[in-house]
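Before we proceed, please read the two lines closing this message. Tell me what the token row says about the fold.
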Amino acid sequence: MSNQNITVVIASFHSSEKIIECLNSIDQNIKVIVIENSNDQNLKKKIVSDYKNVEVILSESNLGYGCANNLGLLKVKTNYALIINPDVILKKNAITNFFLTVKKIPNFGIIAPISKNEKYQNFNLKLDNQLKEVENVKGFAMFLNMKSIKEVGFFDTNFFIYFEEIDLCKRLRSKNIKIYIDPSIETNHLGGASHNARLNTQMELSRNWHWMWSSFYFHKKHYGYVSAFLKILPKFFSSVIKFLYYSIMSNTLKKNIYRCRLQGIINSLLLKKSSYRPNIQ
């Protein structure tokens, strides 16, 4: 196996401050597809000029994580794909170690690398330095076996952000397709830094809205409306109390965060689509 048998897919959103460092960490013999969730012509020109191995697709609108990655995956011709966030930097030999692991477990669905900034429940990276089968992985970096992924379908595009990778993992496991974390494959994930810094407030509001909406939708999809309602109810009451508290305290940012949480919950309960989008004007 070689670098010709893998394609890197990166979904970005106004990520010009971070994505260059990410691209610099990828071997330029590897095909890369960047899906930019905007119509940023300047970013596209810069990337395709500086990186001959990179194709940039401008979605023209903010499609979200899953939908944008699906656009990239549809163009993948190799047996394997690596989905990474724009704020991920691949460590040396990450791709090589991935293919070494593939030889051991050729029928996997997803293999996740590690990052010093990410923690997995019930998995101590310092003690468990072996390949470990898990129920799900985090979406910042995922090595995909395209044959397995095509068997269950790509990301559910009803999700805008959050829970889409957990949903994909659940569908894979329903087909007895295994998912692993491999400590030999290393990345550096900055976390919450994919976008340009000027968008921090708007992205924080969006994250809170969608965390609530996606949580309810995921549980409704897999366990039913009643189960999802009971799951979200404590978060609803907590958000009401905190919204009122920060309103009294005149903390505008916190008040707006919990307002967004409440709106996300209410929209999910009413079975409305995931509609909130960050205001980038």
User: Anything to note?
Assistant: The CA atoms of residues 235 and 269 lie 13 Å apart. The domain at 3-189 is CATH 3.90.550.10 (Spore Coat Polysaccharide Biosynthesis Protein SpsA; Chain A). The two ends are 46 Å apart (CA to CA). The chain has a mean pLDDT of 92.
